[in-house]
Every structure is written in C-alpha cells, then in structure tokens.
Amino acid sequence: MLDFAVLGVFIPTFFFVSITPGMCMTLAMTLGMSIGVRRTMWMMIGELLGVAIVAVAAVAGVASIMLNYPTLFSVLKWLGAGYLVYIGVAMWRAKATIKLGADSKLKVSRQALFSQGFITAIANPKGWAFMISLLPPFINIDYAIAPQLSMLVAIIMLSEFTCMMLYATGGKSLRLFLNQGDNIKWMNRIAGSLMVGVGVWLALS
C-alpha cells in the first residue's frame, strides 16, 4: 500500500492541478450557471468515468513496460519527468484569465451531458500524457499494484469531483474571483511548481 509520505506528495499535487482552471472545470462552471448543478452532475459522472479509465490504462501500460522492458522504462521515466517539468513551466506562463465560451449552448439531455464529460476526459491526449507521467512514480512494484492503483484512482476521482462541484456551484462569484487580480496566476504557479518538483523527483528516483 502507499505510505503517508507518498500520499503527502500526491494529494496536494493532483488537487492543485485539478482545481486550476481548465477544460473540465470551465465546462462545469459554464453548465452550472446555465442548466444548474444537479444536471451538471451528469457531465461530472461521465468525466470521472473517463478519468478513471485513462488512469487505470496508463498505469497498466507503464507497469507492463516496467516489468518486461526495464531499459525502455528508464527512457520513458526521463521523458515523463521532462514532460512534467514542461507542463509545470507552461502553467507558470499560462494566461491569467478564464472565459466562458459557447459551451453554455450544449444539449442538456442526460446522455449528451454524460457523453460530453466522458469524451472530454477520454479523448484528451494531454490527459493521457499527464497520467502516464504522473501516476507511475507513485506505484511501488514491490507491492501489489491493484490496491495502490485503487487508492490513487479514488483520490483522483474525489479531487476531480470536489473541484468540479466548486466550479459548478461557484458560478458567477467564482468567475469574478478567478478573474480578479492575479488569483489564477498564483494558482497556476502553485500547481506548476508542484509539477516541476514531481518531475525532478521522478528523474532522480
């Protein structure tokens, strides 16, 4: 199982990455303002399912490479570390604004909302790259992988759901807060710093 030191790094890292304004969070806020929080939860369910599938598939693929091709895994580890550092720097340089686009005109049937959330999560190449880079360093191959992965996925889903609910319920007030001063900039910088730290840790481990 995961120890508390690993969880102490993983939980704040993923939470700050989740809460930083992005596609899913902006979608949650837009739908929350236009169709209400209860109906927006159908989109959230689809997004959470998609994220869980991506996480499990990413770890399963990397674990297989780790066990069968250790040299290739070392190369992937360095590439993953570099990608995390790149993402961290990109978050530092990200524009400090959040905009509501045409997503507020999406179909509001349950099926459409669920599909929107699921496709947003499952078809995002950056999401796959992120999971492949971030999750494997927290898996200890000396122990059973399934319990460790289950705990990490549970943390990811709880973090994603909490952040989407904050955006969906915050509505206009949250949008005004995020666009006020340098609030988004500092959120991006905190998340970016954590990403760079994890990338360096991965490269040195």
UniProtKB/TrEMBL annotation:
Keywords: Cell membrane, Membrane, Transmembrane, Transmembrane helix. It is found in: Cell membrane. The chain crosses the membrane at residues 6-28, 48-69, 75-92, 113-139, 145-166, 186-204. It comes from the Bacteria. Coiled coil: none annotated. It is a multi-pass membrane protein. InterPro entries: LeuE-type (IPR001123). This is LysE family translocator. The lineage of its organism: Bacteria, Pseudomonadati, Pseudomonadota, Gammaproteobacteria, Alteromonadales.
